[in-house]
Specification:
6-stranded mixed β-sheet, 16 helices, globular
Length: 476
């Protein structure tokens, strides 16, 4: 279910793609996935049948959650470096190979790792592995590049003022897990990176490059050939010192993180002032228990009043019906569930008119409280079907499928698409009730980005919620 990479995939073989994918995800056909662990611990997972092109993903645990002290921001600079110069190839040489391949290239980072993703024709597998192998195992972070990228981050921070909504999610992470590994910002403050140097980036990257933390996922390639190439490029990796990393287990503690600005953020299209608000509660890590929280996410759903993403998408979800459809001061309202290795976070976010920020928090919590009541089978079935549709549609992209394979194998939880759909179908209305109750009984985090004053704290919101639950006969 971890599909955070959206591949830009050419559709010039649409008919063949549809035929292959119909067979792959029908009940009569299950894609044959092969897995191998090299002698040094590097993982390889692949599925040979692809949609006319191939995709490969290198997943490495170079991530913010391991950063501390002078290494804060090191994973950001590793992401900005991307597929560029390494100890064997210059940036120009890497670029020339990628241009010759002609496929889509993406480097993307999450709280728990980053991926290099390349789409290519099957005949170019060796060229692709030559680039990915060297760029992943031996990147070259120079003083000049690190200096330039640190300067570039200043302009990125300026741009964030025009796209402030993601800062709420960052604030929820920071308050939910502080102090701890998952509280580290994906885009650290300028004061946190002033001591970051090329030497520190290299040291941090090397510490994260443990063989067992490297996973190669691919679609549309021969597994044996892939393993031979991975052995050639990564077989030399050996365990190294990890003492500089923050390897503590993440613990959800709850908290408050309000970012107050002088002027309210302005909607880029509707040109109206907004307050971005969010609530987070602890869910579960990746595993069998995660599916009920994803069904709850689909049931709550949500979207934006400006664009719903196309006709009919999510219009029956509760946040859409009860928030966006009823209150003109709500611009967007969305539910999201995120699963990490050792914990999970269920998030309710909204963008509202600043004078309605407090009511926005109440509105979001009321919708979650509503999930404690009996839920009709029709509504649960709709949520289950929407979740499966989202999941399987994503897997039609070779890039997304390869990324999903790599992330699942990295987390040592590897159900097939058919098994995941079966787990989703087992979820009942009572299961959703219990999941909502578990969220509400735990600690709460709230965050905002606005020009509002007198916003609630997590303690005050939790206290009010406890009173409501007690009235309902539930103890918090």
């Amino acid at each position: 279910m971890d599909m955070f990479v959206s591949g830009l995939v050419r559709r010039n073989v649409a008919h063949r793609t549809a035929t292959i994918m119909w067979r792959q995800f029908s009940s009569s056909f299950e894609p044959f996935v092969q897995r191998t662990v090299l002698s040094n611990g590097v993982k390889v997972v692949s599925q040979a049948e692809g949609p006319g092109w191939s995709s490969i993903v290198a997943h490495v645990r170079v991530c913010p959650r391991y950063e501390q002290g002078p290494y804060m921001g090191a994973s950001l600079l590793a992401e900005m470096h991307g597929l560029q110069a390494n100890k064997f190839q210059t940036t120009e040489e890497v670029g020339a190979i990628l241009d010759e391949i002609g496929g889509d290239v993406l480097t993307q980072r999450t709280k728990e790792g980053f991926v290099h993703s390349v789409n290519f024709m099957k005949s170019d597998l060796q060229k692709v592995m030559n680039v990915i192998g060297k760029c992943v195992s031996a990147p070259k972070f120079t003083v000049a590049e690190v200096t330039d990228n640190l300067e570039a981050t200043k302009f990125i921070r300026m741009d964030q003022a025009n796209n402030s909504k993601p800062l709420v999610l960052e604030g929820l992470h920071k308050a939910s897990f502080a102090p701890g590994p998952l509280s580290q910002l994906s885009f650290p403050e300028e004061t946190d990176v002033i001591h970051l140097s090329a030497e520190n980036v290299n040291t941090f990257y090397k510490a994260c490059l443990q063989p067992e933390w490297v996973t190669i996922g691919a679609v549309g390639v021969d597994h044996n050939e892939l393993c031979e190439l991975v052995e050639k490029e990564f077989g030399h990796l050996q365990p190294s010192d990890t003492s500089i990393l923050d390897l503590a287990e993440a613990k959800f503690v709850g908290g408050t993180h309000h970012i107050k600005v002088k002027d309210a953020p302005i909607h880029p299209a509707m040109h109206m002032p907004l307050a971005h608000i969010g609530i987070a509660m602890e869910s579960v890590p990746s595993g069998r228990e995660q599916y009920v929280y994803f069904v709850l996410q689909a049931l709550l759903g949500g979207g934006s009043s400006f664009s719903a993403g196309g006709p009919g998408k999510g219009l029956h979800s509760r946040l859409y019906r009860n928030c966006l459809n009823k209150w003109s001061w709500v611009e967007s309202a969305v539910a999201t569930n995120m699963c990490m290795r050792d914990t999970g976070m269920f998030v309710l976010e909204a963008s509202v008119m600043p004078e309605q920020a407090m009511n926005g928090y109440i509105l979001l919590l009321n919708e979650l409280l509503g999930c404690l009541a009996e839920i009709s089978e029709t509504e649960v079935d709709r949520a289950r079907n929407q979740l499966k549709n989202f999941y399987l549609t994503g897997l039609e992209s070779a890039a997304v499928y390869a990324d999903n394979l790599a992330r699942l194998y990295d987390r040592d939880y590897f159900p097939s698409p058919a098994e995941e759909c079966a787990y989703i179908d087992e979820i009942t209305g009572v299961d959703v009730n219990n999941a909502a109750l578990a969220l509400l009984e735990g600690p709460i985090t709230i965050a905002s980005y606005s020009n509002c004053s007198n916003l609630p704290t997590s303690e005050s919101l939790s206290s009010g919620l406890s009173s409501v639950l007690t009235t309902m006969g539930v103890k918090k």
